[in-house]
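Why run this: before we spend reagent on co-expression, it is cheaper to look at a predicted model of the complex and decide which construct boundaries make sense. The entries below are exactly what would go into the expression plan.
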Amino acid sequence: MRLINRHPSRIGGLMLLLLPFVVLLVVYFMGSAERLKLNPDDKLLPGVAQMSDAVKAVAFTEDKRTGEYLLWADTLSSLRRLGIGLLVSALIALVVAVATGSFPVVSATLSPFVTVISMVPPLAVLPILFIVFGLDELSKVVLIVVGITPMIIRDLHARAREIPAELWVKAQTLGATSWTLILRLVLPQLLPRLLAAMRLSLGAAWLFLIAAEAIASTDGLGYRIFLVRRYLSMDLILPYVAWITLLAWLTDELLRRITQWCFPWYGGGAR
Amino acid sequence: MIEVRNVWKEYGDQVVLERLNLTVKEGEFCSMVGASGCGKSTFLRLLLGQEQATRGQILLDGQPLPGEPDAHRGVVFQRYSVFDHLTVLRNVTLGLELSQAKFTGRLFGAQRRRARDEAVAMLERVGLGAAADKYPQQLSGGMQQRLAIAQALMMKPRVLLLDEPFGALDPGIRRDMHELLSDLWRESKLTIFMVTHDLKEGFTLGSRVLVFDKVRVDPQAPGAYGARITYNIPLDRSRESVSAVHLARAAVQGASSLEAISD
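The model came back. Tokens follow.
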């Protein structure tokens, strides 16, 4: 049988899914054990014991200075920034894309502009954001918004143009005005695609969040890993990176589930 | 009722339709046949208001047709005729909602129940009563076209425009659809324009067949001359118009000895 026609069984599929993760862990901990055997104080590849101590210290012990549990406080502030950033971006992108996707006049003005703006490297704008919005929460959220909104707009605009011309005509023959056509055709068609676009821009959103936190912040997951980098605390950085990855994956999964629940007709949501 | 006066359609240098003149009475079923690329679908889009004639005008009841699609002209395309984000029932209700609720595009309360009942009756009429809560992609191609027809008929349009509505269907299903469409046409006294590739379909369904063809062809400039309506054949329903079928087939194939046949 050709390799392209061979599909793994249920159990086999699960094993194949876990394989790379297991390999990664095994390789890491073998290397770690090797180095710790030579030097028990090695900081580069910490073992399970060191990492669990570090996690215990940030997750289940009150911080002496602030009286907070650092991991949870960091997670909360990072997720709040990310959530607000994503929501604001999604809202702006939806409004702009509906306008450019529906009205040729608006598209003629805005589409080339958005294309140019999306080429501006967001991190190059970061100093401007710090100068204009100060060093507190606002500039971090704005960085996420500046970073991902143009991409989502361009994606959604393309999706709006993909709505078959037949449907635009059909809605008009059913008596739709421009406004009701947007309400009953464009918006419902674009909402699941907006969620898909948000899922794709999650990686970029995290990137901008951590960059902003690393440069100017007093809490947050990105702030923490860049802070402890000074002490070469790989025992804390590695669990934080794993935690961030888990959070990112959960956000993606959440958006996917929402797509499936709210838009059962949308085939693209199953991926 | 519909009057086409010296209509031309050009895209840049390319002439697609030239000197179309036509009068169609209310309640006619016009099948439009012809070779591919001879402007049948373009003419349908002109009637629909999706495109504008370069010259000439099209009158509906003596008034020029509005320059954009509206509720007086229903349409069924070969594909993408129904809204995939709405269930079957909501697809059919949509027309009532859009035409009655100009701001929200939705109906509520008693109005909504009335619209619903009307839609259910229409679905029963086209044989989709059992599929009311399904989404279009759960339906077969034939059922989707039934839905598209039901959706268009809810608006009680003056004119129904069909662009190869059955082109993608199996022959058996096609026959069912022909029956449904003939029945609906007879009941509702609609004026129908249907583009089709299938001559037999055109002749069995239509009360009038319009044959589109290029009369003049310049081999050096294929786009210089457009197509016209070369034959406008009213069909006498009382007898089998076999000879008419032959006539049109010959016309479509570009035979030159047509006069001999028609005499």
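The first helix of chain A runs from residue 10 to 38. Chain A touches chain B at residues 164, 166-167, 169-177, 179-180, 183-185, 188-189, 263-267 (CB under 8 Å). Bring this page to Monday's planning discussion.
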